[in-house]
Amino acid sequence: MRKSFLFVFLFLAQCVLLYGQDTLATVTAEKGDGIYSLLRKHGVNPYEYYHDFIDINMDNLRDSLHLLEGRTYIIPKMELDTVPVVDSIQKQAKKVKEIASKTYDIFGEDHKTVVSKSERLKGAIYYLVSGHGGPDPGAMAVYAGKSISEDEYAYDITLRLAKELLAHGATVYIIIRDENDGIRDERILEMDRDEVAYPDTEIPLNQLDRLQQRVDIVNDLYKQNKGAYQRLIVTHVDSRSEGQNIDVFFYHHEKSQNGKRLAESIHKTFDAKYRQYQPNRNYSGTFEDRTSLFLVKKTHPAMTFIEIGNIRNEKDQRRILDPDNRQALAKWISEGVILDFEER
Fold first, then answer.
1. In terms of Cα–Cα distance, which of 130, 175, 170 is closest to 154?
2. Rounded to whole angstroms, how far apart are CA atoms 32 and 324?
3. What letter would DSSP give residue 66?
């Protein structure tokens, strides 16, 4: 009797494993679905499987990035950490594969858990500054009858970038902070004025004072971490005429070879991603020196200053307002950052 039970038990366990490994789920995109929201809705971690989804559904995506309403898509297979048959097998599987993670409240309740992906950035320190904030919303535009501002979108991308860098073992300082916003998955990000500067300092009203405050914070931290690999990444959303569509581009200090290499590494990554995911569209983003910018000129760490797009341009708004696109931007920036660190 015991042998028969054991045989049936093992057979069922094997069937569950085979079913989990060989079966691919398919879903139909509904109005308003994006890749990020679709994966999350079906219990798949979008941070882990975003690019897998694109790779296996390339022929069914508009512009190689956007879902088409009514189309059927394949959900990537997830590795099973446990076999859902009995508690003993679950416990055994957890012993085989334990996932290290930490929580950071600044990312918000839905995103606060950072799962370790690697230690590729172990020993690296990054200072992340999102443009404007506090009394200064930066560039503004109107979308669907509501006002939107540069600082909210730059901050959201910066948080997503911070989470990616942390997942690869980096030490990250988020210089402009909003403790009650976190990473947001809406298209329209509500405006507020409660951002502060690291660690919890009011942001001045005067523009020059605001910039000097950021310079002082970064330079003080740079001195404290003297001898370590340190980089600064500043993120802005550009403001030009409504008709001007721009690609993501990067600035660096003209005399900083390390800054130039960082900007070039991220630029190279973006160029490769556009070739992969949008082969019919040329990437026109550039990297160049622009020492006239206050933060580029005054800060001590090697740095890159990133302009994400034109918030007043309709095409660029799609890139900025879509949470899937903001996640992709952060992921691509992080891959360029890793490239720079590993090729130093």
1. 130
2. 12
3. B
